[in-house]
Amino acid sequence: MTPVPYQLRFIQIDRGSRNNSVDKQISDNPDFTYIYSFFAESSIYGFFVKYIIRLECFDDCFALKYYCTRSKHSQNKYSRVINIFSASETKRIMETCAMVIPHILNLHPMASFAFNGSRTHDKGGYIEGKNRTQRYRIYCELVRRLFGEQVFYISMHDEDSSCLFINRKANPDVYEAEKRLYGRFSLIFEI
């Protein structure tokens, strides 16, 4: 039996500072951010660890990010490896993060989504290459299995380990939307 995702808890909406920005087109500040949390269990060590999920909204697209609160003060909090979970527990964490997408679609039915499979940074100083990162490969498999392509046109970019879920209802020309969104997020997140 496949374990179900962890229980999500809505924390707050952070109202961002992009609305006050002089040039909203190139600002890297989101319009607002939905923040969720959940606790993941490590069977290896027998304790729970808190995770934060951030969905940063830029116009009609949300960038999905998450991190373990043990790394919250790290410059690389989105890419740190903490080595306390088994492979199946890691997959469960990622599935839990993906479950925020239906929540957001209930609130914003025309929303599209973006994510980047961050490059691994481990304690030994290893930094993974930019192309087809381990996180990206896992995300791609989860995306295919969990969402298919009825609601979203899924645009995967192996060269920088990023992916767009382009809402088909909101974007009749998905290829134009892909160029627009990819161009925008490549500037904001330097992918």
Descriptive notes:
By secondary structure, the chain is an alpha+beta fold. 26% of the residues lie in helices and 28% in strands. The chain contains 4 helices and 7 strands, in the order E-E-E-E-H-H-E-H-E-E-H. The chain has helices spanning 87-98, 100-107, 134-147, 174-189, and strands spanning 9-14, 32-42, 47-58, 61-68, 112-116, 152-157, 162-167. It has a 7-stranded mixed β-sheet, with helices on both faces. Helix 1 packs across helix 3. It is globular. 26% of the residues are buried.
What's a concise summary of this model?
The protein is of the alpha+beta class and 191 residues long. The protein is 26% helix and 28% strand.
Descriptors:
191 residues; alpha+beta; seven-stranded mixed β-sheet; 4 helices; 7 strands; globular
Helix-strand blueprint:
Layout: E1 9-14, E2 32-42, E3 47-58, E4 61-68, H1 87-98, H2 100-107, E5 112-116, H3 134-147, E6 152-157, E7 162-167, H4 174-189
Parallel strand pairs: 4-5
Antiparallel strand pairs: 1-2, 2-3, 3-4, 5-7, 6-7
Helix pairs in contact: 1-3
First and last CA, distance: 37 Å
The protein's oligomeric status is single chain
Number of strands: 7
In percent terms, what proportion of residues is strand? Answer: 25-35%
Tell me the major beta sheet.
7 strands, mixed
